[in-house]
Structures are given as structure tokens and as C-alpha cells.
Amino acid sequence: MIQNLNGWHAIIVLVIIVLIFGANKLPQLARSVGQSMRIFREEIKAGKRDDE
């Protein structure tokens, strides 16, 4: 299903996100997602080190 997505789908999703959260909250939302991804990657690396 993901293989069938193209640029228009990304634009539509972005517009929906802007409508839901509002343009003022988007930087805060992006920052939160970035921090969450960083924590997730650190935990994955820590888990791999523990397995060895």
C-alpha cells in the first residue's frame, strides 16, 4: 500500500495536518516528533549493545 503513495498524497496529508493542528503549532509538533525519533534511535542502539 505504501508503494502506491506519491507526492500528491504527501501534500494532501500535510494540508490535513495544518488544518487539524494549525500553522502556529506545526514547529512545536515537528520539534516533538524529532525529539521522539532521536530518543527512539538511542533506545534501539542501546538495545543492540545489550544484546551483544
UniProtKB/TrEMBL annotation:
Keywords: Cell membrane, Membrane, Protein transport, Translocation, Transmembrane, Transmembrane helix, Transport. It comes from the Bacteria. InterPro entries: TatA/B/E (IPR003369), TatA/E (IPR006312). Its main location: membrane. It holds the Pfam family TatA_B_E. It is found in: Cell membrane. The chain crosses the membrane at residues 6-23. It is a single-pass membrane protein. Belongs to the TatA/E family. The Tat system comprises two distinct complexes: a TatABC complex, containing multiple copies of TatA, TatB and TatC subunits, and a separate TatA complex, containing only TatA subunits. Substrates initially bind to the TatABC complex, which probably triggers association of the separate TatA complex to form the active translocon. Part of the twin-arginine translocation (Tat) system that transports large folded proteins containing a characteristic twin-arginine motif in their signal peptide across membranes. TatA could form the protein-conducting channel of the Tat system. This is Sec-independent protein translocase protein TatA.
